[in-house]
Amino acid sequence: MTGCAEAHLPVTPHPSPNFGPRRKGVRPDIIVLHYTAMATPEAALERLCDACAEVSAHYLICERGRVWRMVEEEMRAWHAGAGQWGDVRDVNSRSIGIELANTGTHPFSAPQMAALERLMAGIMQRWRIAPARVIAHSDMAPARKSDPGPRFDWRGLARAGLSVWPEGAAPGRVSEADFLRDAEQFGYSLREGVKADDIQRAFRLRFRPHATGPLGPEDCAMIADLARRFPVDRDRATA
């Protein structure tokens, strides 16, 4: 399945031992984006391929746009950890994980984003993954993760047809109950160990990275639009 990606984008194989079969024979229908939070892409590559670390991802993209493949797309990489998106609890079995070399404190380079877009376009075509199923690590694990962080250009990714973005909506009343209901409809999960503040933080990291303060009317309007246009698919079998 990965041969198509290599036909359009140079990909360097660098196998990791940290993978297994996708449980229950499921196919990937989610893409999870991460940052490495490490000093260099080489250090990240070493860790993602270290059997003792017990972590991996399918791909790693460095700032210059070079792409390494560590796990074949058909297999289950160990990148997501505990978390949930919609009804999916075993996110590793249902996803393809892409690591971006970035500490989380600086912008993602143009060559890196260009490589990401080309890679994602191939993955989404091969596995028929919808733009609404492209998520941040912080979306599925809002209480413990922040990647790919506030510097990642989600809006640009949506313009390329590879993710989603809320349309302009007139801000209305502020209601935490409505915000959480709409957040759950979009895919966020208010489960044990995840608080309302965690959901708000994850939402803002992706859609309002410069917003501060308590929940506001813009937050409520944006998540309501996302919930209306992109309700998470709860009809699929859970994994």
Compose a concise summary of this entry.
This protein is α/β, with parallel strands linked by helices. The protein is built from nine helices and eight strands. The protein has two domains: 3-159, Lysozyme-like, CATH 3.40.80.10; 176-229, no CATH class.
Structure description:
34% of the residues lie in helices and 12% in strands. With 239 residues, the chain is of the alpha/beta class. A 6-stranded mixed beta sheet has the order 1-5-4-7-3-8, sandwiched between helices. Helix 7 packs parallel to helix 9. The relative contact order is 0.16.
Structural topology:
Elements: H1 3-8, E1 11-13, E2 19-20, E3 30-35, H2 41-48, E4 59-61, E5 67-69, E6 76-77, H3 91-94, E7 95-100, H4 110-127, E8 134-136, H5 137-140, H6 154-159, H7 176-186, H8 196-207, H9 217-229
Parallel strand pairs: 1-5, 3-7, 3-8, 4-7
Antiparallel strand pairs: 2-6, 4-5
Helix pairs in contact: 7-9
* CATH architectural type of the largest domain: 3-Layer(aba) Sandwich
> In terms of per-residue confidence, which ranges show pLDDT below 50 for 5 or more consecutive residues?
1-6
Which strand order does the major sheet show?
A: 1-5-4-7-3-8
CATH superfamily of the largest domain: Peptidoglycan recognition protein-like
Give descriptors for this structure.
alpha/beta, Lysozyme-like, 9 helices, globular, disordered N terminus
